[in-house]
Amino acid sequence: MEPPEFVKVVVKAYRSGRGVFANKVNAEDLVPPQATDLQKALFLFYVIQLDYATKSQRLYEGARELFAANPGFFDPVYVVNLPDDELRGSLGNYLKPRYINEAVRRYKANSRGLLANFGGDPRRIFEGVGGAKEALQSVQTFRGFGPKIGNFFVRTMVNTFDYRYSDVEDLLPPVDVHDVRIAHLLGFNDSDEVSGRNIAEVKDLWSTACREAGVSWLVFDKALWLLGSEGRPKTREDVINLLS
Predict the structure, then answer these.
(1) Are 103 and 66 in contact, with CB atoms under 8 Å apart?
(2) 207: which residues sit within 8 A by CB, 6+ positions away?
(3) Which of 4, 185, 224, 228 has the fewest Cβ atoms within 10 Å of its own Cβ atom?
(4) Is 105 a residue whose pLDDT tops 70?
């Protein structure tokens, strides 16, 4: 199976909702349903910046619990005026990030940046801009929003609010250990090492495959993450079986 064919098969299975794709637990699916549009954008902004070195489902479940208990923790005005020890305690109790001190630094610094540059509304990053690349450049000015988290945040915002950009397919998909492992299991790359070079190669691999398959990476990336994180394949046969 060549990469473009694999992309088509994955997206078809994802859209049918069968097997491993029956349980939709992508970030876009875990936004609190009772939230306003502004609260949804803020929820994604705050939680995604901590979506590293931790189990995503636990992170989002804890974030939803914290939102229900006190939505102020997803409000930049509230956050910047919150004592560090109180912020540290709530993030530790609910979101349980692996690096709590860095989580507090990100919350504080990014809250100040969001207020100063976008009036406290993440949607303004994406509205009235020349395209997805320009939006991504603004996203990457925030602490921790690098090539993975930054592109991931763009994906969730575009999918959640249906922003239309002519250049969105020019952005590279975010790649994590699951994407690299699946590419290696299928023989699309030589190593499953999560190195900078290997990640860059896998980004190009999936981007090119999506283009050739005529499929948006915005959809494929959601499906691929579920395939890796929920299915946890260990062999090529596991990957194929999860799609059948």
Answers:
(1) no
(2) 172, 173, 217
(3) 4
(4) yes
Cα–Cα dist 216/103, whole Å: 32
Q: What is the pLDDT of residue 192?
A: 86
AA identity, residue 11 = V
Query: Residue 119 carries which DSSP code?
Result: T
Expressed in percent and rounded to 5, the helix, strand and coil fractions of the chain are: 65, 0, 35
**CA 42, 45, 50, 56 torsion-angle sign:** positive
Other C-beta atoms lying within 10 Å of the C-beta of residue 61: 16
Per-residue pLDDT tens over the stretch 75-102: 999 999 999 999 999 999 999 998 999 9
Average pLDDT over residues 141-166: 96
What is the CATH T-level fold of the domain 3-26+169-242, as seen in this structure? Endonuclease Iii, domain 2 (1.10.1670)
Residue 125, both tokens: 């990053």
What pLDDT sits at residue 54?
A: 64
Per-domain boundaries in the chain: 3-26+169-242, 31-167
In terms of C-beta density within 10 A (0-12 exposed, 13-18 middle, 19 or more buried), how is residue 7 classed?
buried
Q: What does the angle CA 172 – CA 174 – CA 179 come to, to the nearest 5 degrees?
A: 115
Distance CA 116, CA 30 (A): 28
CB 47 within 8 A of CB 144: no
What is the pTM assigned to this prediction? 0.92
Query: Which tokens in the block code for residue 68?
Result: 């229900």
Please tell me the class of the 31-167 domain: mainly alpha
